Amino acid sequence: MQSQEEVKATFKLILIGDGESGKTTFVKRHLTGEFNVQHNATLGVEVNHLLFHTNRGVFRFEVWDTAGHEMFDGLRDGYFIRSQCAIIMFDTAKANTYNNVNRWHSDLVGVCGDIPIVICGNKVDIMPKKSWKTCINFDRKSILYHIEMSAKTNYNVEKPFVYLLKKLVGDPSLKLVQSPAIQPPKVVFTDEMSCQVERFLDEATSYTLPPTYD
Ligand code: GDP
Ligand code: MG
Description:
The protein has 8 helices and 7 strands. It is an alpha/beta fold.
């Protein structure tokens, strides 16, 4: 059984960023054989354990996700302390969530120092790549590594973890040897499906109901 394979190391990962940017959805996309969710009511956090099988062995992330109170002064140091890596998420469809990335970053670095960090621009299924890049001009403003993704369609959902593992293990050639256990994407409404619905509606409206008699 893959989940019984020896885990080489466990890394505490904190997941931060403005509320509604998709953090909880992102964590829930990843399913591992090891179902282990812990709630810490004092810190307002949910901890999910995610396993990744790589060419350097099996690694576990202990992902700390806030329980919905992502105010800058709401996260206590206890949340950040001893984090070995971090993901800062923003919503590519909402420029203000990008503008807050710098604040999240300085809060994080203030407590954790120089740890591997990846910035994730989520919801690229809504905001096409080009438009959000010209909107916020990410590359020029920041030297931080960033990934664009969609927790809804599963686009790039494993990439932040692979990037962090490369840094943590110190091996740029680290790669996944098994697909991570990821939920199937939510239904994507294709053009073909829209046509089917339109045809169905046409037929439904052209159908005359038989008269009713009291
Ligand atoms: P959190 O507050 O950062 O944990 O955000 P949530 O995970 O609760 O997500 C906030 C809302 O964004 C929910 O309605 C999600 O269904 C939606 N959402 C999350 N990820 C995506 C995505 O990639 N694309 C789209 N279109 N919606 C998303
Ligand atoms: Mg959440």
